[in-house]
Amino acid sequence: MKAKHVLFSLILLFYTFGVMAQRSSSSKPLTYTDEVTVHNSSAKALKFNAHKWVYNEETDDLTENIIEGTHSMYYRYSKMDFSGDVKYDVKVELFEDKYIYTFTNFTFKVNGGADFGVIKEEDLCLTNPGMFKMKLLQKPFCNDLKNKIDAHVRARAKNLNKIMKNEIDVKVKVYEDLPPVGIIYSDKIQIPNATKKQLFSKARVWLSQTYSNAERVTRKKSEPEGVLIATPSFEYKREGALANQAYTGSIYYKVKLEINDSDIKFTISDFTHRATNSYGLIKNEDVCFSNKQVVTKKKGLELCEHIKKEIDDHTKMLIKTLKSSTEKEVENISQEWTEEKDNGECSYSHVVNAEGKSKDELYEMGKAWFSKEFVNANRVLEIKDKEAGELYGKTSMKFMQSKIVPMGEIHFKIRLQVKDNKYKYIFSDFVHSSRDSNYGLISKDPKNCISPKDIVATAKFKSKMCPKIHQQIEAEALRLIKSLNASMK
């Protein structure tokens, strides 16, 4: 019993320090696929049902024949008492009398810990074995993990097949766009000579650049109507006395963009405060909220003044970036591409000549590169716009503080734009985050590249850490650029 405890302690030690093995030889990812024949179901109903199953929402967009998304399952390994999420990609391809479903790219990450990468079909199934580098440990773990995945997929496939048999009268529930309430900011941004299609595409880019979870917070995306609606939030903090912590939370709001030829009308409204002491909808009145907690009028006025200033500062920033970003994007459509200006942040950008290659060819080559480079490309790419020549996504890399100790992840954005005979890549916005500390946006400053919010970082610590961060960012960026250029030939 004691020996078993010692063995478990050693394994746990390896796990705690995140020992990462070299990436094992490539093999086929664990994949489930099947073809199902359907009878007496309209194409409209099949699309509606498939969309509802993949995205867990109803839609009026029934044009796509291939519906892709990402799902997850909870997994616990009882022998060593740890758990996490298995994420996987799902795809439903629709035909007149059948559909094909595919479950693939299963990845497992322990809560707050090791990332085992893509699960493979073989007995030693881990791409990143970590603490399971020994065959004696990895094989039983893989058996248990794949058995749980298999049971989950069978249940999900059964559920899909049941839903796909529903012949429905498609009466769609869509996001209810109610009139704006509370504090409202609204105006038009004039952009002469820009088409509605161009502005819609560039407004989507702005949403993705502005919000890390843009796809999740977007509530409506209708190009025919020229409407984009999102319901994001920003952090709200009260400094000072301990009692003020009860007001620290988030302010949720609604962004509506109405897009036509030559202009974008924005409406930013419905600011709602949520915290331990939530004050709900913020109004323009002096005492701007109605709350159940008993506070003095003086305290209410003080809170409202602070909340409204935070809202005003945040909204003015949004309006400024929407205007400058969209104008710059539209200008780049008609003009010759230029290199990105150095803004002091880590970024890699270049315009590459591709003589003899059409815009459509370069777009497909770029899309294929994302699929080749990222097994979970469907999760990485947020924008796939062939007409605009735009591929835009977000991904991350591990940051290793030492050879054996991972220290969180560095998230970054990848943008690929294409036109006839040219393409432009941009790798930017490298931001560090981890379970214990966040270093924030990484700058090019060799001795002061981080701005940690969670810890007090001395100049000595920064000057020691920055070269490590820069070295790893550059190595990954140059690797991706080399891979991209090779794929675009």
Describe the model:
It is built from nine helices and 18 strands.
SS field, number of helical segments? 9
Largest sheet: 7 strands, antiparallel
Query: How far apart, in Å, are the first and last alpha carbons?
Result: 61 Å
**Count of discrete structural domains:** 3
Which stretches are low in confidence, meaning pLDDT under 50 for 5 or more residues running?
A: 1-25
Question: CATH first level of the largest domain: which class?
Answer: Alpha Beta
Named CATH architecture of the largest domain: 2-Layer Sandwich
Q: Approximately how much beta-strand content do the residues carry?
A: 25-35%
Number-wise, the strands total: 18
What fraction, in percent, of the residue positions are helical?
25-40%
Q: Would you tell me the structural class of the helices and strands?
A: alpha+beta
Shape: globular
Per the CATH scheme, the topology name of the largest domain is Alpha-D-Glucose-1,6-Bisphosphate, Chain A, domain 4
Radius of gyration: 25 Å
What is the averaged pLDDT score? 84
Order of secondary-structure elements: HEHEEEEHEHHEEEEEEHEHHEEEEEH
